Amino acid sequence: MRTLLVSVFCPDRPGLIAAIANRLFELGANLGDASFAVLGSGAEFTAICSVPPHMSEETLHQDLAQLPELAGAEISVKGFGLDAGHSPSANITHVVSVGGGDRPGLVAALAELFAGFGVNIVRMDAQTLPGSDDGRYVTRFALNIPGNSVNACLAAVANTAGELGLTCSWTEENR
To answer: Quick one: pLDDT band at residue 175, thresholds 50, 70, 90?
Structure first.
């Protein structure tokens, strides 16, 4: 098997994941890590795929481009030269949510705070909530927080959110 990185960006519409995942399965590809997000009126799907040795990047690209659901999509298929396995710092220990009115620079400030505590951001999602006339914004971080800095890091996040008039919550994931 070979490992490829498949990325698709197109207008958001129902059935995108089903169309992409089903076609990859039909071609003998096995999905590894994958993500999907609606970004404005667009949608982004990215996955690491194990494919049969005979499948080329170009063949997979052309096959996906034939899907009606991907009409007009930007499709990228390329070799994945990194290890597809996770390092220990990719294990999620906490999920932190910060919400309230939109605050320009919030993501940058929180990312810098996390870096200062040696935290690895495993996933991040930020969005303006639909129908919120006041610009209600929610940011979620799936994090790997080193055990010796959990309390100080979470306190710093809560303080930062509080200073900005935002709400903050977190959950501890399985360790």
So the answer is: low
Task: Give Cα separations from 70 to 29, 45, 135 (angstroms).
Answer: 18, 11, 31
- Same domain for 96 and 138? yes
Angstrom distance (rounded) from CA 49 to CA 28 = 10
The pTM (predicted TM-score) of the whole model is: 0.83
Q: Which of 53, 59, 46 is nearest to 2 (CA)?
A: 53
Query: For all residues of the chain together, what is the average pLDDT?
Result: 92
Total tally of structural domains belonging to the chain: 2
Q: How confident is the model at residue 102 (pLDDT cuts 50, 70, 90)?
A: confident
For 106, other C-beta atoms within 10 Å of its C-beta total 19
Gap between the terminal Cα atoms of the chain: 31
Query: Domain of 64: which CATH number?
Result: 3.30.70.260
